[in-house]
Amino acid sequence: MTDDFVGRPSWPRPYVVAIAGSVAVGKSTVARLLRALLSRWPDHPKVDLVTTDGFLFPTRELEARGLMARKGFPESYDVKRMIGFLADIRATGRATSPVYSHQAYDILPGEEHVVDRPDILIFEGLNVLQIGAGMERANAPVFTASDFFDISIYIDAAEENIERWYLERFMLLQRTAFQNPASYFHHMAHAPFDEARAFALQLWERINGPNLRDNIEPSRSRADVILHKQADHGVDWLKLRRL
Ligand SMILES: Nc1ncnc2c1ncn2[C@@H]1O[C@H](COP(=O)(O)OP(=O)(O)O)[C@@H](O)[C@H]1O
Ligand SMILES: CC(C)(COP(=O)(O)O)[C@@H](O)C(=O)NCCC(=O)O
């Protein structure tokens, strides 16, 4: 009755789990594992997973704004659309998100991921705990993504390990995904090891490393849970802020 009066949904809304952390720290691995584990619980079988790379501006837009070397930085995301997505999930349990392809290195035109009343939504991305630039300004956002989370988990590790995981993943992709002529990095498919590694190191040193230090790590203290990984990906400690 009260819910009818204030216009809240009378069905149980999705429980939203946010997963944050650096590029290559293991967010998608943890998210997929969590999804598989939670799906097994008999009382909430429907678990959906959405990644925030779907809310990156398309390459065309990033190029127009001079942001191709700032991919993953706060200004490279359509934050308004992302908050709108989360607000729709809260209000109706249903929403659609654009789809990003690592192969195309771009948003896929015309494709969307439809979320339809899951019991649990895992919302994964390096920016989920960021509060947006210019909070002091008159046009400061009314909501931040965290307003829509039931629990948030920050995956943490020493930067030297994350950088190594990034380089290892790049070298693995060179032997596999980059071999596909449709891959954005196909020009690296046959590069000698040292050249490919130097290329990946530049991406880390110019984009992902600075983004970790300037924007991602500063959001860590907002997480409910910090899960710290050691060099072999094993979790050596876990901190709970509040539950
Ligand atoms: N538990 C793990 N054991 C072994 N390798 C892992 C583990 N977690 C992540 N990795 C590897 O580390 C790299 C980064 O993980 P990924 O989940 O892709 O990170 P993110 O989504 O944060 O960019 C990948 O190459 C992945 O295979
Ligand atoms: C799309 C991303 C911002 C998101 O990274 P993710 O959280 O999926 O690992 C990142 O993969 C990226 O493209 N960074 C820019 C530099 C690079 O190509 O690594």
TrEMBL record:
Top-level EC class as recorded in UniProt: transferase
EC id: 2.7.1.33
Catalysed conversion reaction: (R)-pantothenate + ATP = (R)-4'-phosphopantothenate + ADP + H(+)
Signal peptide limits: none
A biological process from GO: coenzyme A biosynthetic process
Pathway: Cofactor biosynthesis; coenzyme A biosynthesis; CoA from (R)-pantothenate: step 1/5
GO cellular component terms, semicolon-separated: cytoplasm
NCBIfam families listed in its UniProt record: panK_bact (TIGR00554)
Protein's name in the database: Pantothenate kinase
